[in-house]
Amino acid sequence: MDKAATIVDLDEFDRKIIAALVEDGRMTVTDLAALVGLSKTPCQVRLKRLIETGVIHGFRAIVDPAKLGMDHVAFAEVKLSDTREAALREFNAAVRRIAEVEECHMIASSFDYLLKVRTADIRRYRMVMGEKISALPHVASTSTFVAMETVLDAGGRRK
After folding, report:
1. N or C terminus of the chain: which is more exposed, having fewer CB within 10 Å?
2. Over residues 18-40, mean pLDDT
């Protein structure tokens, strides 16, 4: 079975480790162990298991998109002309190649996908929509919603 699909049994220490690393993924194992109430070696063993079982996929930097000049966020609803499995696979593979698409979710609604698209400005978004998203396989129509403010982001940080 795919390890991503397997539910991993977690105890209170595992959950504390995960919560601590979500807040600060750069903390040392020594600091992590002290924070969760374990000695260093058992904490390392648990951390290794959480990584090996896929509970923790990795560690990454959380950047401020505004400081990179990429603070324009739009959400695009995408309706497909064909929703058979082969068409969905084709769309999924193609949308993954668009760098400006931060997230793509298949939706149970009157449309098929919801995309989170990040660009420098509305002009660049228009280009991405016209040249990349609209050109994806099986796209029948799109509708855009522009975010005016981010209140809570994927990192769990409140703005």
Report:
1. N
2. 95
Tokens standing for residue 75: 């959400």
Residues 15-27 pLDDT 10s: 999 999 998 999 9
Contacts of 38 (CB under 8 A, 6+ apart): 13, 46
Give the whole-angstrom CA distance, residue 106 versus residue 28.
37
Interhelix angle 12-23/29-36, rounded to 10 degrees, is 130
DSSP of the chain, one letter per residue?
--TTTSPPP--HHHHHHHHHHHH-TT--HHHHHHHHT--HHHHHHHHHHHHHTTSS--------GGGGT--EEEEEEEEES--SHHHHHHHHHHHTT-TTEEEEEE-SSSSSEEEEEEESSHHHHHHHIIIIITTSTTEEEEEEEE-S--SB-TT--B-
Q: Are 100 and 117 in contact (CB under 8 A)?
A: yes
Question: What are the Cα distances from residue 100, in Å, to 22, 47, 69, 123, 129?
Answer: 25, 33, 13, 13, 10
The pLDDT tens digits for 134-156 are 999 999 999 999 999 988 887 65
